[in-house]
């Protein structure tokens, strides 16, 4: 019986790292139909952005940053989450 390395026969696809870091999942509103949809808060180039996709209208990528500093965003988020825990 001959052992054949199957992975050597397949062409290797080159993987590229994402140019952003996923921070958290949140909810947002579709700018077209105003329905509540899922959104991803991502960090890119030390700025915080929101990526969202409506099942009817496709993906939306907010052109402006939610926050220009990751540190400021994390402090604001910590304050908001701390207030929810106290209630």
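Q: What amino acid sequence fits the structure above?
A:
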């Amino acid at each position: 019986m001959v052992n054949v390395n199957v992975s050597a026969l397949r062409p290797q696809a080159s993987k590229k790292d994402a140019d952003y870091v996923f921070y958290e999942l949140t909810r947002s509103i579709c700018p077209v139909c105003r329905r509540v949809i899922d959104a991803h808060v991502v960090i890119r180039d030390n700025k915080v952005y929101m990526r969202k996709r409506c099942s009817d209208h496709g993906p939306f990528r907010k052109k402006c940053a939610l926050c220009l500093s990751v540190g400021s965003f994390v402090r604001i988020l910590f304050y908001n989450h701390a207030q929810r825990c106290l209630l």
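Q: And what stands out in the fold?
A: The chain is about 25% helix and 35% strand.
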